[in-house]
């Protein structure tokens, strides 16, 4: 069998790429190692309830009339109607630096600007200079790493405000310790503060099913439980060898599994030792009755928090770092049907190697999971109020869970810190999309899949 295009990985970048290619009537096969597609954005069922594993909120909210907005461009490229998703905008979020300051923000940027002018009156002009800079800045132009932190130190000149601006943007889109690329900062600033956040009315399962339906209706094929073991490049074609020994010959391969992960399928040893630190996280889910949400939580979408003035975004010394994190209320979106049981979700930075050591003794791993879940719960309670007494179900996943289900090296959600922005890995018929191409998050990864297809594959078919 010889195919025009094979996509490796059924995460959101691979799914979006498959929708885009299949729209042009081209045969495309997507292979996913896991038994269900979705990758980092997946779901599981416990006690007859569907729990989402990845989605907090989707960034890049846009009104329908805004034709140039990334979200609307993405939907046009995929030929998906807004009515197929039904957008529920966030109620309102905040950046909370305990004992220091709080900044509220929503999908109305005026709120954020007003908050900054009230809480940091001496810095509002600097903040407006930053806005002017970002309006003119081409975040997509190829450039080496530029430190966003160094840039903000100069332009904002108020250390606490700099830390508060970086906290949500790093949590939702930095693969670098304690910093992020200025281009990535600009992309995330637009995505979170200027555009805002939303979620689909349905679950992530329904969102993934929608993408699968589009692929299948366009004639594309999806195989789950199908792991690519290696890839070889031959004259005028590429061959992917599946775990079961099957060989698939194709004109082009799009890999969405990560740059080093792809290199290892290619068995290309470039003799470069790579020990760049990768960041991973733990995620907790606490289910409780809606009525038991602490006061204020019913009107909140996300809290990005930090203890003290200095934000440490780095691999922790211990299994998790509870000093900062994200608290998400999936019921905190306009138009979401009220359910009897709702969730509070918390995220913290985690040290993969510590969890790997713990996993050598299964009881120790389970004990540490329990300890960290309780620590995370009490940390969240200290910020939002008590809820532990009302929890009806709890679950926690560690970097090892992410590694097991997605194959990501070190369970690093945002992949390798060095991005390959043009998707070019030095081969004429194998390209890279997804996390390691540089667009992060749900909209980012989908845009990545679509843009690499547009740039490298469609023009050649
Ligand atoms: C806890 C958590 C919370 C998050 N919250 C948000 C959020 O609120 N908002 C947001 O925008 N983003 C969020 N994200 C990030 C977002 O989920 C990711 O950025 C995005 O989904 C990445 O998609 P991807 O396709 O690039 O990669 P992945 O999802 O990793 O997809 C790659 C796929 O390739 C498969 N694969 C790997 N190796 C092989 C192989 N050899 N053969 C076949 N298949 C293979 C994997 O199983 C995986 O399914 C969150 C992520 C996590 C984990």
Q: What would a concise description of this structure say?
A:
With 461 residues, the chain is α/β, with parallel strands linked by helices.
Q: How much strand content do the residues show? A: 15-25%
Radius of gyration (CA) equals: 22 Å
CATH class categorisation of the largest domain: Alpha Beta
Low-confidence stretches: none
> How widely separated are the two ends?
17 Å
Name the helicity range. 25-40%
What bound compounds does this protein have? flavin-adenine dinucleotide
Q: Give me the CATH architecture of the largest domain, please.
A: 3-Layer(bba) Sandwich
| Most strands sheet | 7 strands, mixed
CATH homologous superfamily grouping of the largest domain: FAD/NAD(P)-binding domain
The CATH topology assignment of the largest domain is: FAD/NAD(P)-binding domain
CA-based shape: globular
Total of domains: 3
Structural class estimated from helices and strands: alpha/beta
List how many beta strands DSSP finds.
18
């Amino acid at each position: 069998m010889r195919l025009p295009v094979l996509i490796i990985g059924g995460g959101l970048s691979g799914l979006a790429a498959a929708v885009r290619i299949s729209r042009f009537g081209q045969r495309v096969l997507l292979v996913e190692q896991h038994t269900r597609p979705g990758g980092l954005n997946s779901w599981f069922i416990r006690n007859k309830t569907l729990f989402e594993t990845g989605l907090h909120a989707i960034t890049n909210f846009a009104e329908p009339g805004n034709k140039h907005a990334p979200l609307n461009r993405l939907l046009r490229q995929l030929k998906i109607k807004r009515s197929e998703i039904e957008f529920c905008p966030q109620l309102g979020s905040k950046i909370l630096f305990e004992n220091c300051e709080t900044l509220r923000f929503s999908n109305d940027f005026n709120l954020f600007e007003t908050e900054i002018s009230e809480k940091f009156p001496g810095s509002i002009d600097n903040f407006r200079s930053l806005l002017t800079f970002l309006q003119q800045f081409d975040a997509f132009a190829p450039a080496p790493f530029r430190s966003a932190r160094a840039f903000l130190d100069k332009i904002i000149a108020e250390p606490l405000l700099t830390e508060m601006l970086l906290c949500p943007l790093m949590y939702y889109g930095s693969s670098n310790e304690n910093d992020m690329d200025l281009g990535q900062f600009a992309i995330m600033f637009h995505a979170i503060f200027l555009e805002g956040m939303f979620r689909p009315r349905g679950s992530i399962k329904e969102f993934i099913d929608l993408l699968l339906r589009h692929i299948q209706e366009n004639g594309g094929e999806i195989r789950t439980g199908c792991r690519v073991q290696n890839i070889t490049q031959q004259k005028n074609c590429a061959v992917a060898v599946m775990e079961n020994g099957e060989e698939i010959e194709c004109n082009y391969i799009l890999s969405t599994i990560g740059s080093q992960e792809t290199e290892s399928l290619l068995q290309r040893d470039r003799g470069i030792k790579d020990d760049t630190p990768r960041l991973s996280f733990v995620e907790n889910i606490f289910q409780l009755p809606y009525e038991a949400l602490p006061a204020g939580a019913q009107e909140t979408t996300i809290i990005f928090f930090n203890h003290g003035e200095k934000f440490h975004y780095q691999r922790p010394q211990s299994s998790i770092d509870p000093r900062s994190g994200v608290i998400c209320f999936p019921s905190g979106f306009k138009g979401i049907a009220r359910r009897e049981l709702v969730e509070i979700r918390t995220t913290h930075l985690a040290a993969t190697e510590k969890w790997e050591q713990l996993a050598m003794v299964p009881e120790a791993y389970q004990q540490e999971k329990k300890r960290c879940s309780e620590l995370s719960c009490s940390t969240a309670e200290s910020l939002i109020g008590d809820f532990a007494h009302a929890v009806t179900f709890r679950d926690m996943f560690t970097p090892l869970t992410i590694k097991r289900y997605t194959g990501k090296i070190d369970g690093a959600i945002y992949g390798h810190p060095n991005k390959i922005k043009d998707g070019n890995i030095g081969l004429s018929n194998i390209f890279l999309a997804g996390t390691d191409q540089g667009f992060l998050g749900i909209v980012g990864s989908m845009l990545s899949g679509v843009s690499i297809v547009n740039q490298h594959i469609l023009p050649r078919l």
